[in-house]
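During the reporting period the student researcher (J.K.) took over the structure-prediction task from the postdoctoral fellow and processed the backlog of single-chain submissions. One of the processed entries is reproduced below for the supervisory committee.
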Amino acid sequence: MRNPTVRIRGALQRGGSTRFVLSSEGVWLRAALVGILTLLCVCVCFAGFPLRVRDARRELVVIRRKPQRIVSLAPSNTEILYALGLGGRVVGVTKYCNYPPSAAKKPKVGDVQINTEAVVALKPDLVLAHAVLNGSVIPRLEKLGLTVFAVNPRTLAEVARDIRTIGRITARPQTAERVASKFEAAVRRISASCAKRPRRKVLVVIQSNPLWVAGPKTFVDEMIRLVHATNVAFDARPGFVTFSKELAISRNPDVIIAGVKPDADYFLKSKEWQGTNAVKHRRVYVIKSDLMTRAGPRLADGLAELAEKLNY
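J.K. obtained the following structure tokens:
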């Protein structure tokens, strides 16, 4: 095989400039070198560490290197990490991190209350927190020298945004883009399929008795609107709140959604609720609460289930 060295066939003097004519082997070598240099530049840009990224607290967090040991302080964050293929880098989770099932086998650092000593003992190079749920423990972890990045998505669009951000700070931007884009496409598709349906009245119940419901400014309220329905508790206080049973009954929900079967059974057996369309027509359903309240990719599954229950 001939040595692919650039060979000068000749130098032609034209107006004081020299033009070099390369052999085909020289052109091949130059193209190969350009390709290698381009690849190296892409790799450097992809690595991109240290990163400086603002989190949900508006704090500028410095991620000094690609995280290898991640502690997740919220079930939603755990689900996102696993969706990005980062389960092998997760070294600690909470008691409530139960999806996927393998996440439940990870060392526990607490439940609603986080054990700072347990977190430190795992020697994480990144702690992924929830800005509100973990608000009290974050400063303590930072004082102990840990890198903490907090998220707090409040809409489905912000869930997709945070998937991309978590992918960026964990060196999984392309995977994150695929996951986020798939999530967004599913939301658009489901919403479009419901656009011409009759508008149903839906009550989503967190607790049956006393009555707690999903009010405004929740994922649930947004999902109800996306499937072209009306939230019976549209004028409740924001969040998951108590609501007047009498008012809910008077608004005659067409469908009642509960998170667990015992709550669904309560409505079907209750004499007070028998006059509502939902109970009369046995349209009281269970949709696992995680699919409607946990800020991760599975919200699209919850939206699909909600759309299916309203398709009658």
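The committee noted the following: Residues 51-188 form a domain with the Rossmann fold fold (CATH 3.40.50.1980).
J.K. will present the remaining backlog at the next meeting.
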